[in-house]
Write a structure and sequence with these properties.
This protein is mainly beta and 195 residues long. Strand 5 and strand 6 (76-83) form a beta hairpin. It contains one helix and 17 strands. It has two domains: 28-111, Immunoglobulins (Immunoglobulin-like, Sandwich), CATH 2.60.40.10; 117-194.
């Protein structure tokens, strides 16, 4: 009986070994919601959800990806990384490294290059002007119809004028690589610029 009691006490002593309070310390856990994030060229913030049961340290590899805040939440931490606008001529990458004890996770942030802007200026006398058909990936833009009306571009956009006179419509399109004017109408002059 004494022998059994000694074994139980020995097992309890081994199980309780570590920490000042005699309790076992939990092993560190660390994980991130996603290891790769891709965003457009604009200045913006990216949120990284970190699962951790212990304190973390966060570092960024690039000056343009700034760790703004680390907020503790129920499941771990929410890391906010501020990104400066990408004014370079190529996509760029930053690595955000999260460390908890001996564990490390990394998140690669890819910020795309600003797409070229194709600007088409049409001087015309049409009462109805149909937008050119724009080719390219993810084409976006703004149309200034030249009579005080400006609107976001969408496929098939057109405009009716109240007076038959000379108007200058300007199409500033991001991501456009080509355009087709399906109905020429009364176009007096056009100008194309790439920026």
């Amino acid at each position: 009986m004494k022998r059994v009691l000694m074994i139980i006490l020995l097992l309890l002593a081994v199980a309780c070994k570590s920490g000042d309070n005699g309790l076992l310390e939990p092993s560190a856990e660390l994980g991130v919601e996603q290891n790769a994030i891709t965003v457009d060229y604009n200045a913006q913030s990216v949120m990284i959800d970190v699962v951790s049961n212990t304190a973390i340290e966060v570092k960024s590899s690039e000056y343009w990806a700034i760790v703004d805040s680390v907020i503790e939440i129920e499941t771990g931490y929410m890391v906010k990384v501020g990104l400066l606008e990408n004014g370079s001529d190529a996509d760029r990458k930053a690595t955000v490294t999260v460390t908890a004890g001996e564990l490390t996770e990394s998140v690669t942030i890819t910020q795309c290059v600003k797409p070229e802007v194709m600007t088409l200026v049409l001087r015309h006398t049409d009462e109805h002007l149909q937008s050119p058909v724009w080719g390219g990936e993810s084409v976006t833009g703004v149309v200034d119809w030249g009579d005080g009306v400006t609107e976001e571009y969408e496929e098939g956009i057109a405009h009716d004028y109240t007076a038959t006179q000379s108007h200058t419509a300007t199409f500033e399109m991001e991501g456009a690589t080509s355009f087709t004017i399906e109905r020429v109408g009364d176009i007096e002059h056009f100008e194309l610029r790439l920026e």
